[in-house]
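[audit] Reproducing an earlier prediction to check determinism. Same input, same settings, fresh worker. If the tokens differ from the archived copy the diff job will pick it up downstream; this log only records the rerun itself.
[audit] input (214 residues):
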Amino acid sequence: MELIQESPELAAYLAENEAIDHAHPTVRRLADELWSKTGDAYAYARAAYELVRDAVPHSADSGDLRVTWRASDVLAQRTGICHAKAHAAAALLRAAGIPAALCYQRLTLADGPEEGYALHGLIAVHLDGAWHRQDVRGNKPGVDAQFSLAGERLAWVPRAEFSEVDYPVLYAEPVGVVLDALKSAPDRPTLWASLPDELPELPGGMPDEHPDVL
């Protein structure tokens, strides 16, 4: 699948916004610590990925009812769902001058569409002149995501037979429907009920079923 930048300017994927607040002292401190231990972009990107994947539990796995969405809060409170963790990973990468994007998948909630769908959040890191998608959701039995620049090692691969979707667009900021749900939910059970199960529309009005999406 060819990945598509929402913004043609790579600088957009280094910018700060309300969710990816990489100038915040919490983010800067962690970024400086990681850089002092790594010293180059490749090692740093892997270390940032593994920190968010492993040291920030997915709140559904841990049973934490708190909802986080701003990167600095995710890293300070050490909790969040996939979208929140993606914001944190993007912030750490951008803090080191490494372009990072947000991207999404539409996945079933169980082994088939009967239980419904969920919009899953990923990141993409720009290294070696190319984008590489990564999943910082957090591993568990049946999920083994790994940092990789040589072929994707994501938590899940969408299945066309279940109408699961890999969205190809790389976003510089969280999509509005996701961010709105995160910001307005008082707790995770409420968030589960309000999160979208698909992207309403891709840039330029391209509908979800466009062949380039699959």
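[audit] rerun output stored. Observation attached for the diff report: The helical segments are 25-38, 41-55, 59-62, 71-77, 82-95, 176-184, 188-194.
[audit] end
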